[in-house]
């Protein structure tokens, strides 16, 4: 079970790593360990969500915003 202290994404958002996006609610960064993709960009919530089992209806707007940010990043990357 991941906690805020052991979650790799919580550690990432609190690091000095470069981000494609960070608005205090959602952050995005390049996954440098992707085995198959040339570019693999992750879009994550700043607040810890342990697993998809922890999602509920209150997260719908957050997920929609994450999708929109992913689209914006993709539009910047692809001419």
Plain-language structure description:
There is one protein chain. By secondary structure, the chain is an alpha+beta fold. The protein has two helices and three strands. The protein has helices spanning 8-13, 60-77, and strands at residues 21-22, 26-30, 41-45. A three-stranded antiparallel β-sheet has the order 1-2-3, with helices on one face. Strand 1 (21-22) and strand 2 form a beta hairpin. The longest helix is centred in the C-terminal third of the chain and has 18 residues, at 60-77. The mean pLDDT is 89.
Query: Residue ranges: pLDDT <50 for 5 or more in a row?
Result: none
Order of helices and strands: HEEEH
User: Percent of residues in beta strands?
Assistant: 15-25%
What number is the mean pLDDT? 89
Largest sheet: 3 strands, antiparallel
| Number of distinct beta strands | 3
Helices and strands: which structural class?
Answer: alpha+beta
- For the biggest β-sheet, the strand order reads 1-2-3
């Amino acid at each position: 079970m991941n906690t805020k202290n052991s979650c790799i994404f919580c550690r990432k958002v609190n690091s000095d790593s470069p981000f494609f996006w960070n608005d205090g609610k959602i952050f995005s960064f390049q996954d440098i360990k992707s085995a198959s993709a040339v570019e693999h960009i992750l879009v994550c919530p700043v607040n810890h969500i342990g697993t998809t089992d922890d999602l509920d209806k209150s997260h719908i707007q957050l997920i929609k915003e994450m999708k929109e940010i992913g689209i914006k990043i993709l539009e910047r990357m692809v001419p």
